[in-house]
Amino acid sequence: MEFLKDISPRDYQQKIFETCIEKNCLVVLPTGMGKTLIALMLSVYRMKKFPGEKILFLAPTRPLAEQHQIFFKKHLPELFGEMQLFTGSVEARSRKKLWQTADIIFSTPQCIANDIKNKLYDLKGVCLLIEDEAHRCLKNYDYTYVAESYKKDSSHQRIIGLTASPGSDSQTIRQICKNLSIEEVELRTRDSEDIKHNIQELEFKKIHVDLPPEFLEIKNALKKIHDSYIDELKSRNLLFEIPTKVNLIKLQKKISHILAMGGKSFDIFKGMSACASAIKLQHALELIETQTLQGFVNYLKNLMKQAADLKSKAVQELVKRPEFNFAFINANNLLAKKMEHPKVEELARIIEDEKSYNPRFKTIVFSQYRDTAVLITKRLNEILGINAKIFVGQMKKGDTGLSQKEQKKVIEDFSSGTINVLCATSIGEEGLDIPEVNLVVFYEPVASAIRSIQRSGRTARLEKGKLIVLITRKTRDESYYYVSRAKEKRMHSAIKEIRKEMYEKDFQRTL
Question: Does the predicted model carry a pTM greater than 0.90?
Fold first, then answer.
């Protein structure tokens, strides 16, 4: 394609690009399969077709927006167009001026939404809107707001959404398509005929571990208290569903709403207390079953501190329960004996084996919680030849984390090989330009199809890769694993159904 430097599209990218020329399109491609190149090709096409008009490229975070800008600068001639990165650190007056002269703007949706609301500029002269991580164009109000403003203002409209997975149910995908006025969905998976020969073999393995008897004793003690709270919610006619963490959180919101509306009966007050305690115990059970003993003890200590600070009567009552004290004392005794969750040592064994086969290997270990990431980073650094680094989001109040500058440095060190293991939370799942890795390990399965697809897309792109999932037997790990697999299948079925509907609508219009 004219103007492209040092890069050529693959057949599937060319085909998707041709669809995007004609229609607003949702592009669903595995991580690392070149969604940004399709956006670049379309940007060139639209700017040639509508000289003097702008491209607006939105990404959910500043590092992602910056990454897209770097890609565009690398593959377009210097004089092709003026590119600007809009962030909150650039003051509003400057952004207003830059908007007038820029040809391609990279930004977070918040920044553009605020500017439009403050009437700094409008989107009339934008001939292409690109929304990256388009599955966020649902709950992310700013993403949706910018899309609505664009549809209202722009003279020459074209929208594309980019994502590795738009979700698993047809209602969610339909809503994303509606918000972006999508007319066609281009879906590819690792098994698609035109992608197969562009990707490498992926070796997949599930490794099961068993909870030690000592852990089971602790789990059963907490389960006893948890079940007593569930019985109370049922006896007060408040809980009718299976008592999962998700259902309990929904019930908590429902009870809060009843209280806000003035429904202050004894049953409601007691139900609120029981529900809050059951949710806390669900989290504690998840930690002992699937995470680390240290993280579990940290959480119990936090509950005890809340009780000491008189945060709520519910938590004060909870920590007085003999079963709670049994769990706390026994867990601390196990830590004193240097015991940990069996996944920790299993992970260390996997990394040691991988290092012995391939001295130049690179690995990402994904875990749900920061406490887990901290502990496994420490353990893996005890292995000769391993330099593991934690990769987490920005600091929150009273929390630890990495600034965007520190995140960037970690990725640079990982790319250069100074670091060979990245222990990442969800920040490593979405979009960031993390280099090809030989091995991805899920410390635990995740129930979300979106997150599962994004995690596994980090390997087997340019060379053979391995994906290993650690599963604790007879725990929620097993159900989360099967839930995410089922959701992924549902996503493919839903997209096929929606594509069919779009095709039929299109056909009706041409009659």
Answer: no
